[in-house]
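Dear support,

Our group has been running a series of protein-ligand predictions, and this particular one with adenosine-5'-triphosphate is the one our PI (initials K.S.) wants archived with full inputs and outputs. We had some confusion internally about which version of the output was final, so please treat the block below as the authoritative record. The input we submitted was:
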Amino acid sequence: MIRFDQVTKRYPSGHEALQSLSFELAAGEMAFITGHSGAGKSTLLKLIGLIERPTRGHVTVNGHNLHGMRARGIPQHRRGIGMVFQDHRLLMDRSVYDNVALPLIIAGLPRDEVGKRVRASLDKVGLLDRERAAPVTLSTGEQQRVGIARAIVAKPAVLIADEPTGNLDPQLSAEIMQLFADFQQVGTTVLIASHDLPLVKRMGKRVLVLDHGRLLDDWRPGDP
Ligand SMILES: Nc1ncnc2c1ncn2[C@@H]1O[C@H](COP(=O)(O)OP(=O)(O)OP(=O)(O)O)[C@@H](O)[C@H]1O
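Confirmed final output from the archive:
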């Protein structure tokens, strides 16, 4: 689960990207974060991944209050979180297989275990037959799927995504969002920042709306 308690984030520039933000996402829940450009969506996700730290308040992820977490605890924390970015950040000189295997190799898993998990992940995103391909030979949607396979390969309890469909056409965007919903179905907690309001609404999940760093609305399925 994910919990924000009165979280404020002020960047060194003095700008307050998040202001006294509080919300809780239960284990296995899926939600979207929407809001205007600069509303604080990416900042919120960065605090979960400990890419940034709050100025005030507490963030709890998977039962751990991140406040007291030292630098040496960060790699283990990040292994419990799958992160997907708009620009997928794949290594273009490595195969699809190598890209997805990377988090497991860094974690020191045995080679046969890595092989099993990589193939299971590629199977889930429908790319099992492309494991030897170079990412440049894949379509944008396929590259995004490789990024998702890499994010889920270590079986994280929490999956966060920052504008994962930003570069995709409506059909592919809907497919990628459905893929995230499938991970929720098997128990993963999923939080996605997205500008695409029509698509977000169609998904019928909880929606947190940010406005200048504050929580403007928290819509849940069943609300009018
Ligand atoms: N490293 C930084 N240093 C200073 N200000 C920053 C930094 N990162 C973000 N900001 C500012 O904080 C505010 C929130 O940014 P953030 O990227 O979280 O918004 P966002 O809702 O994700 O926007 P977008 O939809 O455009 O990606 C913006 O005004 C941005 O300029």
